[in-house]
Amino acid sequence: QVQLVESGGGLVQPGGSLRLSCAASGSIFSIRTMGWYRQAPGKQRELVANITGGGSTNYADSAKGRFTISRDNAKNTGYLQMNSLKPEDTAVYYCNIDYMHFGFRYLEVWGQGTLVTVSS
Question: Please, where are the H alpha helices in the chain?
Answer without folding.
Answer: none
